[in-house]
């Protein structure tokens, strides 16, 4: 392998945390002494030519596309670390939840109340926005057409606004994204109510491409487990307590949830 001079990094996650990913990549670049390039992908990770042709070095990616990609790819993406959130609900583990939200002015107070209502989700490949909702339907023995209508918003922040604006009755939101939105726009708390919490589930990790040297991956992992003051400042801003080392087996639960839903005929929910 030639000497590493540049790290190409892609984020497939919510844009509200892009500043945090910039801080992580900047720190890694300082530690390795290399140039870094971070960009937000406009593609579904399972359809992105950059990831499919192995043209990236690192990626911030949801656990569901990670396990789905690794089920079919010969060269697998390798999880390195995942954030541990500071809020007590996370109990010092690299996990997150799906918070099912409704408009605070509605008469919806429980998951059962959502029968026949309009669900908005970010995209079909999302673990928090779609996969865990399917899991909740299966767990509760609800039919796959439990929701009267389902509509795609494209990303979590838009789903939140659609519920606030009455364009949808409910949405499953990544708890990390929801908490960040409430930090950035505290007035939203007056318009939203959480009626169900699904999880916990393994939180989206930072992953390495298969061509990246193992020694480099080890350096990155060690560095992020011992963040410097600059990165710690960004961590505090985004409610991150620290990082935890993670590996592929940590994400097997997501694959199980996904495969169980498909086998039960819940590939698509709603109408």
Automatic annotation (TrEMBL):
Official protein name in the record: PhnD/SsuA/transferrin family substrate-binding protein
SUPFAM superfamilies: Periplasmic binding protein-like II
Species of origin: Nostoc spongiaeforme FACHB-130
